[in-house]
Amino acid sequence: MDFGIKGRNAIVCASSKGLGKACSAALAEEGVNLVLTARTEGPLQETADEIASRYGVQVTAIAGDITTEEGRAAVLKACPNPDILVNNAGGPPPGDFRDWTTDDWMKALNANMLTAIELIRQTVDGMQERKFGRIINITSAAVKAPIDILGLSNGARAGLTGFVAGISRKTVAHNVTINGLLPGPFDTDRLQSTLKPAAEASGRPIEEIAAERAAQNPAGRFGRPEEFGAACAFLCSDKAGFITGQNILLDGGSFPGTL
């Protein structure tokens, strides 16, 4: 299927590895030119070079902190008129809410809610004027099934979800859609890092812990990043103009509800 987005321009945040990189590769495969951003320059440039070489699209790497005004300004200078925006940021640390200060909450809100809203604010009007825009917010399965020790993430990402629920019903009339992709357990570096403490505490190999956790999923495995990227690319396509304000769960069936 031709997704109809060849030659479009996309900004993808936190795209040096993991799900952000997978989304970037899937968009590049459809002929989309990319501006990639992440904090660490080396891995980001490696990803940019790899995608450009493989798919023959224009890929620009902008190293910086997208949660700051300076970071956002640098990205928007490189891509002032994006057709596609993929908001993505690592989650805040787990813990007990009794230990979190106002500063902890503000950092979480800035990274996982306010930064995405600010990028939407600075790009959505241009998308509406051009009559095409696709905005994807990578959040978390915890938006639908909160995890008690991830309260900072639960709160910030739910706030972004609530904001999008309103604005996405306004922008769609101009062929600008805004949707959330909610990942469950995907085989990424971040997932491996969360397994390490369990392995150390039990004295068991991390591979054994990973296999055990994967088997507990109804799919019997972790998700593959390229599966997530493919879902992102479809939602960014010209075939997905009637999908907006949705939160699509990719979790292998872990969530037991019907809605």
Description of the structure:
This protein has helices at 18-29, 41-55, 69-78, 102-130, 151-171, 189-202, 206-216, 225-235, and strands at residues 9-13, 33-38, 59-63, 84-87, 133-138, 176-183, 247-250. The chain is of the alpha/beta class. The longest helix has 29 residues, at 102-130.
Provide a concise account of the structure shown.
The protein is 47% helix and 15% strand. By secondary structure, the protein is of the alpha/beta class.
Question: If helices are DSSP runs of H or I spanning 4 or more residues, what is the number of helices?
Answer: 8
Biggest sheet descriptor: 7 strands, parallel
Low-pLDDT residue intervals, each spanning 5 or more residues: none
* Relative strand content: 5-15%
Secondary structure elements and their pairing?
Elements: E1 9-13, H1 18-29, E2 33-38, H2 41-55, E3 59-63, H3 69-78, E4 84-87, H4 102-130, E5 133-138, H5 151-171, E6 176-183, H6 189-202, H7 206-216, H8 225-235, E7 247-250
Parallel strand pairs: 1-2, 1-4, 2-3, 4-5, 5-6, 6-7
Helix pairs in contact: 1-2, 1-8, 4-5, 6-7
Offer a few descriptive terms.
single chain; 7-stranded parallel beta sheet; about 260 residues; 8 helices; about 15% strand; alpha/beta
